[in-house]
Specification:
Blueprint lengths: L3 E4 L5 H12 L9 H8 L11 E5 L2 E15 L4 E12 L8 H15 L4 E5 L2 H4 L5 E2 L5 E2 L4 E3 L2 E5 L10 E4 L8 H8 L12 H10 L2 E3 L2
Parallel strand pairs: 4-5, 7-10
Antiparallel strand pairs: 1-2, 2-3, 3-4, 3-10, 5-9, 6-9, 8-11
Helix pairs in contact: 1-2
GO molecular function, one term: acyltransferase activity, transferring groups other than amino-acyl groups
Keywords: Transferase
Protein name: N-acetyltransferase
């Protein structure tokens, strides 16, 4: 496939939000909020427009990835700015074709060029470990509530970028989506069936509880 990666433009917003909705619908939970999250992220002061990348095939947007600035509160009292990756989406009919991998690789390349030190995200290790990420626990990085989490992954953009950053990863509050606002936003789109208990939802439910207290 001749996939073109480029920066998202304002004229793409509706199409990209629909791509995100299609990608996440009934995946992690019944319905989804990620298209609303994308919608509100773009005006956030920590949003990084240079890393708002769409994947295009024959003039049709089939994928998108975005990043937000966040930080690690290190145990030594210092703060280290990092990037939070996501949401990342690919239309269901184009998944398993390497599009997500290409978007992540370009994000990593551009983030390095921009001087960022690392990218973090919460996701399925079965996928992200294949994209060069490692468990955050490997570097002593925990969640904001001081837990080691199987879902938390990190990608250092250069050697020893987080050598002194053992501590707690603090992602922005925007990721705590207002469900009622998300439901209202979703009314802009054609109705879709909400399904409970899909295999991917069960997998997600397993992963999110794989946490342990840091000693």
């Amino acid at each position: 496939m001749d996939i073109k990666l480029r920066i998202e433009q304002p004229s793409d917003y509706n199409e990209t939000e629909n791509v995100t909705r299609e990608a996440f619908w009934n995946h992690f939970s019944p319905g989804c909020d990620e298209h609303y999250l994308l919608h509100i992220m773009r005006n956030h002061p920590k949003f990084v427009p240079e890393l708002d990348i769409v994947a295009e095939l024959n003039g049709k947007i089939v994928g998108n990835v975005v990043c937000l600035k966040s930080f690690i509160m290190a145990d030594d009292g210092n703060q280290y700015e990092v990037l939070s990756l996501g949401p990342i989406s690919v239309l269901p009919e184009y998944q398993q074709k390497g599009i997500g991998r290409k978007m992540i690789a370009l994000t990593q390349e551009r983030a390095f060029d921009m001087g960022f030190r690392a990218i973090l995200l919460c996701g399925d290790p079965d996928y992200y470990l294949r994209q060069g990420f490692i468990p955050a626990e490997t570097l002593g990085i925990r969640t904001e509530d001081n837990m080691y989490a199987t879902a938390l992954h990190v990608y250092e953009l250069y050697d020893n970028a987080l050598a002194n950053a053992k501590g707690r990863y603090i992602e922005d509050e925007i990721y705590q989506v207002d469900k009622s606002a998300a439901n209202e936003f979703d009314k802009r789109f054609p109705p879709k069936e909400i399904i409970v208990g899909t295999p991917s939802q069960k997998r997600f439910d397993q992963i999110v509880v794989m946490r342990r207290k840091a000693i």
